[in-house]
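General statements about sequence and structure are easier to judge against a single worked case. For one protein, we set the task of working out the structure tokens from the amino acid sequence alone. This step matters because it turns folding into a mapping between discrete strings. The amino acid sequence and the backbone structure tokens for this protein are reproduced below.
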Amino acid sequence: MVSFPGTSSGWFRTGNRTCPKTGQRLLCTDFVPNSALKQLIKGFCLEKSIHFADSVGRSRDVTKAVVAGSKVSEQAVRLLANFLVGRLVRCNNQEQNRAAYEIHLLTKTSIFNRSCLVEAGAIPPLLNLLFSCDPSLQENAMASLLNLSKFSKSRKRIFENRGLILILDVLKCGLKVEARQHAAGAFFYLASVEEYRQLIGEIPDAIPSLVELLRDGTDRGKKNALVTIFGLLLCPENHRRVFVAGLVPLLKQEQRQQWW
């Protein structure tokens, strides 16, 4: 479990074995401090002249301290999400790159963080950054969109902002191979929506670009391309498109190479 030191850990010291937020029974109550998120929030608070306490003061009423700390942490993440989205929109390339990188970190594992960033409007500016001529900025923006696409509400926002075409452009001609493999991964999550699965297949270059990445990409890129193609095959109309794109002989070639 990930937490800020000194907050929810007090809940378990009183003998509780359920999540203080959801009430779900937990198999493990070990904590790993989320230092990266803490430092981001601390930097934001310092910049905005907001008092930041490194640890929750000791209190005889542990339950009240935990509840207050949890609410404060949630509000801090919402403020941080708006702050980072503002940097994506208004700052220079260097600050945009830093903001995109921080969003990438924030959205790696936390559904709540993804939700806050979607609500703050992160998806349109991240999609706009895919046009960047800066390889690092494009990669961080694409990595952030990949993580956000794991959140169901994000997929509709990506689609409504022409995300399918923009992500395909990165898949075809991304400035770094990492950006291309992130784009393939994003298509995997988008293809979990039946409507988008069909629409992706109907884009002429989508499946051929995935097959090309499977042929020439890194191991991670090949894996992302293959699982995405598998997801697209759940739509019967895509069977012919995958066959025409040359997947079958490519898979046979891959099998022969692994055998020998």
Q: What stands out?
A: The longest helix spans residues 62-90. The mean pLDDT is 83.
